[in-house]
Amino acid sequence: MKNPKVACVIMVAAIILSVIIGGHRSLSAEAAKVEDIFYNGVAGDGFGVNRELSYRVGLANNMVTVAKRYLPADDPDIKAVLDACSAIEKAKKTTDKVAANRKLQSACSDLYERLGKVDLNEKDSRYRENLMTDLNSSNDIISRDGYNQKAEQFNTELKRFPANIIGRITGIKAFALGR
Hints:
The protein is an all-alpha fold. Helix content is 78%, strand content 0%.
């Protein structure tokens, strides 16, 4: 090239582009590791947050079964639980699953309280208590899962330079924590 200014601009552009592409590849690889932990657990044994969410959906559906014995099927509290269950099952992104789990916890708590004001038979009353205990315990398991630590580490790294700029440019987002 005969024009050194043009050559310098091209070289700077190539360096910037290579930093963005390389940074994106590195961030994407780390994000994939965090996502894998969400689904498969820290040990890779399948005991990740996603498995616990499936368990919680089952518990919530059992609470709905009890509720339908005493409340109309179209009751708003029942619908809220079913909607939250559906949102967890349909969510594709970990962030959406975590947000739907928060809605599920709230909806189940509301339904639990509502059922507490209804004259349940003894068996259903005990079952209601056990289901809520299991839901709370399961939520605690999620909050303590190793996914949260890995997601927090990734999110911290994503806030630092140059990852913060590369993330914004390439669309890499922080992970929601299950706490």
